[in-house]
Design goal:
The chain is mainly alpha-helical. Helix content is 65%, strand content 1%.
Length: 310
């Protein structure tokens, strides 16, 4: 392989590694917000499941892998971004309720569904990384270095993003990383000049796919916060955006005031009227009564976070 193309492969590996580890950390954060932080550790075993399945597959089809490595890299790189977004959005529809896990066996089915949904992007990403390892095995020391470097940078990258973006927007920048990865996989030498280039048509469709995927996250990427989440969590961690289905309200005081004055004060129009509660909106409560309701709501907590805050 041409040394310039080899460097492009290493850069693609770096980007994919960064995107995967960043996705793993982001999903752990999303689990902590939507459910309980205890279940965030599920993501580690889910990632290992995806990598294990990919490694098994690559071992069984090692001979064919050598013959079709370039094509497989392109396919997996294209699929990686949409599956990152799709798995995240699909997982928000799983009706898992940790409180019922001791008495309702169907909750184990929902946990299993988390594994199925979230394992998909890790499987695809692992196939991509494993294919590069096989393709460039003669320089495995360099390949491994760039894989580890990408993972380290990806972890730092997502931690930084947590200070800049709300949790439901963390996946968007990762889609950009996977798009860059895919673009790098289409880099090829020009037949005449032998200079590396990216074909225009694949580039156009990759960028279009990126924009559509990010738009999908913006429209449908709301975190599904459990109805049984202790109020103390949302009270202590404002970035959870747990007030309202779209995270518009940043405090209990705001949402109580909204339900009290929705129909008599100027508020943003609802996204849809189909499920709007018309029984509230003008409760005619004064400030003191609103405060009493807030204080009562703060008692609806298991107290765990208050006594063991991290």
């Amino acid at each position: 392989m041409d040394r310039h193309l080899f460097r492009v492969r290493l850069l693609a590996l770096f980007m994919a590694s960064a995107a995967l580890i960043a996705y793993e950390v982001a999903v752990m954060r999303i689990f902590a917000i939507g459910s309980w932080s205890n279940f965030g550790s599920l993501v580690i075993s889910i990632a290992l499941l995806g990598f294990g399945l990919a490694g098994t597959l690559l071992t069984l089809f090692n001979l064919r892998l050598h013959q079709h490595a370039a094509k497989l890299l392109k396919v997996t790189a294209i699929l990686l971004g949409p599956t990152l977004a799709g798995s995240y959005i699909a997982a928000q529809q799983v009706p898992f309720n940790p409180i019922m896990i001791g008495v309702d066996q169907t909750q184990f089915i929902w946990v299993g569904l988390y594994y199925v949904i979230y394992a998909v992007p890790f499987f695809i990403g692992a196939v991509f990384i494993g294919t590069i390892f096989v393709e460039l095995q003669q320089r495995i020391h360099q390949v491994y270095f760039w894989n580890m470097l990408g993972s380290g940078v990806g972890g730092a990258f997502i931690l930084g993003l947590m200070y800049l973006l709300p949790p439901e927007r963390l996946i968007g920048p990762l889609i950009i990383l996977t798009t860059i990865t895919a673009l790098l996989c289409f880099v090829e030498p020009d037949p005449e000049t032998h200079h590396l280039q990216i074909p225009i048509i694949p580039s156009f469709f990759l960028v279009l796919t990126m924009l559509v995927t990010i738009g999908w996250i913006v429209v449908d990427g709301k975190i599904n916060v459990s109805d049984f989440k202790p109020i103390s969590y949302a009270h202590q961690y404002p970035d959870a955006k747990a007030y309202g289905h779209n995270g518009y309200f940043k405090s209990l005081e705001e949402i109580v005031h909204f339900y009290n004055t929705r129909d008599v004060q100027l508020w943003p129009a609802p996204e849809t009227l189909a499920n709007m509660n018309t029984a509230i909106g003008n409760l005619r409560l004064n400030k003191t009564q609103e405060r009493w309701i807030v204080e009562f709501m703060k008692t609806l907590s298991d107290g765990i976070l208050s006594s063991n805050r991290r």
